[in-house]
Amino acid sequence: MLRAMRRKIGTAWLTPTSIEARLFANRSDESEQLMEILEDLYQSHARRYRLGVFGDRGIGKSILTSVILKDFAQRHKERIVRVEVNGRSIGFRRFLKALAGGLVENAKPLLPSLGDKQSLVAKWLDGLALFAHNDQITEGQINTLNTKYGMGAQLSADLIMALKATSSFSWEESRQQTGSMSRTQNVTDDLLHTALKATLQKIHDSTPWMVLVFFDDLDQAYTSDLANMKPALKAILDVDPCVGVVHMRTEMLFDDLRREMDAPFTIGPVDEQGLLAILEKRLDAASPEDRTRFRSPEVQNPLQRVISVTGNPHVLLRWIQGFLGSGLWPAENGAAWCADAALLDVVKRAAIVPGVDDEMLIRLAMIVDRCSVRGKHEVHRADLLQGRLKTAAVQDGKTITDDELEFLIRTGLLIPVDRFREEAGYRMDPLLDLLRPSIATRLRGS
Ligand SMILES: Nc1ncnc2c1ncn2[C@@H]1O[C@H](COP(=O)(O)OP(=O)(O)O)[C@@H](O)[C@H]1O
Ligand SMILES: [Mg+2]
Fold this sequence. Notes:
The protein is α/β, with parallel strands linked by helices. The protein has a domain at 26-266: Rossmann fold, CATH 3.40.50. The chain contains 20 helices and 11 strands. Helix 5 runs antiparallel to helix 6. It is elongated and about 80 Å long. The two termini are 36 Å apart.
């Protein structure tokens, strides 16, 4: 019995990075608003609408949007083509390919509902699929398509024909290994982009469909510099599905992309009840024994305190994982769970960065805490490097060195407010908030 009591509570049920619909809780106001916007657009057969979803990292943008778009598409499943593309770490080309491929795959099941127009649209989609899946296409592939659909007059106005009319398409003669000549066309970024845009226009003109694209983490797409990033993002938005729901973390390219949106949709922190509801959903998957122990006052009392210092579901789930995993909860021995060393242990479990210097983390959190103005926890380079604000934290020379700053940014512990503007300052990864003296004080209830 004693051994069973000492066993740590398992943490698999917390799954802090899952956005599965079955885990979704709370956010009923936001869900309703989002549904209403989509319903209006659906009724008006909108040609172009860009809804920007903004909010801090981990606040719940992806799970909310993904769940609502799925529900909405299910509600009108005979007319909605839903595509999700995640921009994280992929370049322009792969992004376009994923979008084109997703469009084809999700539109095909709806074809039978088009009646007479079915083969017209099917041929466009097959044409687009050629561009999505190949870096080079041959005249032979196009002939195969023509044979498949027949050369009927109304079918000749297809995607390939439309592209041939633009300057981006021109056959190149090349000699095959067999010695015969063949004609090929390289699929350039520009050509793929034009094909995608033309197909979306065709779908709008010839079908009652609504193409709903969810561009998740668009601003996380990989590009080396701003000069490449801006035109790429603009081009992606310019393909104009009927409705594009675009996600952006507040700290990235905020103003620039915000201007490209037709409407902003900002989601803020979750209140205490909401956070508890999110936990309850996950707790269903815990073992009965873990569930009981998690609900005991030895866990619930410290949990209440922790919940009161964050409104970010992801941060909370990570911290709880840390407290349970380190055996600090159930907290049978009073306040030991919120002693400095315990909080440092939890933070390091939550924000895993190999080789990080403990003392530097504490110093950083102290400066950030002191520099916070009215709940905004942004620090400027000068605050970190020179203690510009001359707060108590930096009076004893407690500043950050250039090397440390570089390390903190590289590891994501400090997040630029704007990736391309150094002067805009930085935000500390909120997982480190437990190290801020003002937070620790609140946890200790003093
Ligand atoms: N309303 C919610 N219901 C259930 N879990 C949530 C909710 N909001 C956030 N989470 C949890 O927090 C994590 C971060 O949410 P996510 O949607 O990925 O944030 P964002 O896209 O804003 O960075 C999710 O993986 C999920 O586990
Ligand atoms: Mg996300």
